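Input/output pair, single chain:
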Amino acid sequence: MYKTYIKIILTTVIVLIPAALLADSAGRIYGKIYTVDDEVYEGLIRWDRNEVSWGDVLNGNKELPEKNRRQSKGDYRRNRSSGSIEIFGLKLGGSDHSWPDNAQSGIRFGHIKSLEAIDDDRALLVLKSGMEIELFGGSTDIGEDLRELIIEDVNEGEIELGWDDIDRVEFAPAKSDLKSRMGERLFGTLTTRRGDEYTGFVCWDVDEVLTEDVLDGEEHGRNRKIEFGRIKSIERYSSSGAIVILNSGDEIILKGTNDVDDSNRGIIISDPGFGQVRIDWDEFKTLKFSSPSRQMTYDNFDGGRKLKGTVYTDENDSYSGEVRWDNDEENTWEILDGEYRGVEFDIEMGFIKSIEKRSSRTSVVTLFDSRSFRLRGSNDVDADNKGIFVFMENGDYVEITWDEFEKVEFTK
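Output:
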């Protein structure tokens, strides 16, 4: 019998002291940016406004190899929503649910050694493991939709660049005593309206991530701009407002902007122990800011490796070897998606100990640190899964469909 953990807490102790006293840039994205004009800038990097730490996710799409389709014996067109039938090879009614040629993907910045802009919507990533992958579109992280790229050059100060300016980026560890002009990374504990708690690095409104960033709102018809570093906590007041308590003890009710009402684009909590969660305003209750006792540094990431484990079927058969999950994820750096109690989960595959099917719609995902979540709402964890493949040492491989699948146990 599984146990669902609704409190997500870092394994380290959280020390409630002002962030300024724990100024530590070792967890911040750092590197050299080479521009198309042969300029070179080096320093702390703020990517697309809301990625500043090694644990933050670079989102994009990846192309699926032709071999994935050739190796599959499954028929992805049998999607229950298609409403189609086939007679004498002719498909009648419904829509075409053929195998996709690309999939959503993402990778935490700490795994990346370098990034090269190879066209206006595509990047080549070289990982620490030596693996090369291409990501394209799918978000504002890659391509001409990149909202903003700022590097705090050690000599010239803040420099803003666009995607068209970038030739390549080489990532490297940041010194812990390096001071950012934009403040420290936000950290805290978020409680949902259902009582679940999530602790980690904070991204507010999918935008504000640093103590010098500003929370906007209106108080009694007057515009207010409050630096996050001055805020002790934020509490949902209603669908149209929030209670903001400052470090000074002052309490303010703000309304009128997407920072403090139900047009908020979501609050992301990045947990170094598995990935990140995203909470919408309707599920949000309160966020209390604090300071972490340590940072997750560049050296904490290995660039990933092949997924390995044992897959069990409902016929009591088992197969061990390299695993390709959902005919898509085959490396530890890749991400499993799902939803639990109104919260969206992005879990790095390398942190997953096991996945157990509980129904056509849900699976229990257990981490190596013993936390478990019953997830739904994604083809990673339900009957829309495109197949589980196991590649064995003798060169053979087997495909297990969702109907046949019972459980997978990964090796660490």
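The two ends are 22 Å apart (CA to CA). Residues 114 and 386 are 31 Å apart (CA to CA).
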